[in-house]
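INFO  loader      accepted 1 record
INFO  loader      residues=494
INFO  predictor   begin
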Amino acid sequence: MKYTALLFVGFMYLGCATPEHTTIQAPNIIYILADDLGYGEIGAYGQEKIKTPNLDRLAAGGMRFSQHYTGAPVCAPSRYMFLTGTHAGHAYIRGNYELGQFEDENEGGQMPIPETTPTLAKMLKKAGYQTALVGKWGLGMNGTTGSPLLQGFDYYYGYLDQKQAHNYYPTHLWENDVVAPLDNDYFLVHTPIEKGSNQQAFEQFKGRDYAPDRMIDKALHFLDTTNVQKPFFLYYPSPIPHVSIQVPDSLVSYYQGKFEEKPYYGDNGYTAHQYPFAAYAAMITHLDSEVGKLWEAVKARGQEENTLILFTSDNGPTFAGGVDTEYFNSAAGFRGLKMDVYEGGIRIPFIAYWKGKIAAGSHSDLVSGHWDMFNTFAELSGQEQSAPDGISILPELLGKEGQKQHEFLYFEYPEKRGQIALRMGDWKGVKVEMKTNPKATWELYDLKNDPSEKINLASQYPEIVQKIDSLQRIAHRHPHIREWEFIDPKFNKQ
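INFO  predictor   done
INFO  writer      dumping tokens
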């Protein structure tokens, strides 16, 4: 692809919110968020069957984190926590609170972010950044307070309702609160077909306009048209590889014949596919190519030395839609999947690249999370680090002294019968089934020696369990709706 010869200087000198009032150069920031990508689904994290050459090179040229976490094991709350710098005990959005249905005419989105919510996009815009969102939103529809235009973004394009992102060939996307039609016929996802169906039955789930292709074009156009006098922030939450398993046939062909597989007929949700293993692998490789295109665009514009590129996922790999996580070792041996607060549901890949600033081939075991990005971006742009649950990881990225550590990480997930987890050092406490079992007790794991969470040590270390329990009580704040109450629920008291 040819890119314009536009050069972006990208330097702004801003006063840091520190006693020294030092100045820093504000870099461009590209934050790429995969959807349901497991810890072990890219080559840099041990994947052997799926090709991810661009991400592998990005990791080789930058820093690979081994203990980075999402805020929640599902889509909407993890995105909220990234944008607001809050963990699950304080977050306004803690689950996938769905509005509307799957049909185009019933597109309702998810619970919207209140308009006055501090977001990192608002914070960066205040610092003079040009801001854009391209991809999957899931935090409110147009006409609500959750519109990206009211949450700090100058421009957006993509899916507003995350349910609509179950279909990669939708009839439309959204652009700045206006419908953006695509050349696709309407069909309803989550429509199983009869087992033994011929090839024609699978064709109904294909279209002409592949949404991710439209999105990457819009993202590249944004980079092409930025004002050279100002830095930019591009938030690129790709819907890939969240099911449905859908990808152009030309990409599937590379993997056909490489795996022993059988057709998926849609019996575990989402669309059917004749070659589910090959198509799923092709989707991740397609995501990898998007990363490559963004990276090459930065290089072509002479911006590489002043652009921080971050890549991660919103939660662990899925259990639905024809995906075989065991076959691909998607969770890299960790326990659990999406919707679990065990490591497989919340520990995610995280790659940071900044040429000349981040040491090539470096590795970090810093315990960090999505909610740390707010303060990290604040320090990068010379603003106050105002997110109380997060820390700035900028010292770690730059190899500097003085990196702060979390006292603990806290996770709270009201769906799947109620779950909480708290990591303190190498210790991790977990409670599950809290809605069905009010007397659920803590499980305790030593992540240093048992990262797969196989050996429950709660009975051997009651003092550790007690400490975790006390920290959990400090971390938890009552949510604002009854549906998310399951820890000492105030709404159910007489």
